[in-house]
């Protein structure tokens, strides 16, 4: 935060204004990425409030490793948010391609299919990154500073929100993709992953 330290003054207010506007970007894909990045950032905070304290000296090396992974994931997630906006812009341009002749219509149709696949790949990558972060949240709940346990739980919820939102965005694209094998491959990763999560993401006392 800057200046007076309030959220209303900071850049997040500008982002939310953009999200609320009639402009289609940033949209749900970017919001999913930002949500997931917040989850990763909270886990980083927990790491930073654990590292350097004598009480947690025996796990400090592991927490350093978790911190590195959280910071890498946070950067990647924000990059995916940017990428989501880029591919949406590409799709909008492709829809403007001419279709007056059979040849033009075929070329436009093929370009749309290619762009939709690219658009599905972005939230699919976000899904995988969120999924990879959940075991780190589980581990921090056990070895991190217990004074910030609630931040681990909130971070986990945000990662789950990002993951589920990413899956929804993948499915929106898959619904318009003609390549059955492409769609099957994505679902064969996502659906078992969701099923395997069980209740481990629910947080403190299973609530």
Automatic annotation (TrEMBL):
It comes from the Bacteria. InterPro entries: Cyclodeamin/CycHdrlase, Formintransfe-cycloase-like_sf. Residues 12-188 form the Cyclodeaminase/cyclohydrolase domain. Pfam families: FTCD_C (PF04961). GO terms for molecular function: catalytic activity. This is Serine cycle enzyme, putative.
